[in-house]
Design goal:
This protein is mainly alpha-helical. The chain has helices at 2-25, 32-44, 52-78, 98-123, 126-141. It has one domain.
Length: 160
């Protein structure tokens, strides 16, 4: 019985460690870049913070930001920008697999799009749909192949 409990406790500890790595790999400290514009827009338009539109926009902003961060981590690893000395360590230190991170990235984009899609459909504003779509595409292709906007003419200073 004690071996069974010890084994389950170890599995639970490993699962929580993996969940922690997944959360950290999304770089939650950067989520303010998506949250603040939504909150400012809500304040300026005098839309209640707990309205469906604001909550949907917040979900979209968080998940698209997380997807972009994960895409960046994946392609920086693939393009050998991240290494033991510099950059994001999730893949370098083998905390998560590259394939898992890429799938998680795509899942985050899908959740982000799904969270705002009802509003886009309801509004039927072609300009809004175009701007949103362009934003998601640019978020992905900032580092994703074959475009990799980040790697075009960027000067990287690796100083200790």
């Amino acid at each position: 019985m004690s071996t069974y409990c010890t084994s389950n406790a170890m599995q639970l500890k490993k699962m929580f460690a993996t969940v922690k790595e997944v959360i950290l790999s999304t770089r939650p400290w950067s989520f303010t870049t998506g949250i603040i514009p939504v909150l400012v827009t809500a304040a300026v338009s005098q839309t209640p913070l707990l309205s469906t539109n604001v909550l949907s926009a917040l979900a979209m902003a968080l998940f698209v930001q997380a997807g972009a961060n994960l895409t960046n981590t994946y392609f920086d690893f693939i393009n050998e920008v991240d290494n033991k000395r510099y950059g994001e360590k999730t893949l370098v230190d083998k905390k998560l697999s590259p394939a898992f991170l890429l799938v998680l990235s795509i899942l985050c984009y899908c959740i982000g799009v799904a969270s705002i899609l009802p509003i886009l459909i309801e509004r039927q504003d072609q300009q809004l749909i175009a701007i949103f779509s362009l934003g998601v595409v640019l978020a992905f292709f900032y580092t994703a192949s074959p475009v990799g906007l980040k790697y075009r003419g960027e000067i990287v200073y690796n100083t200790p």
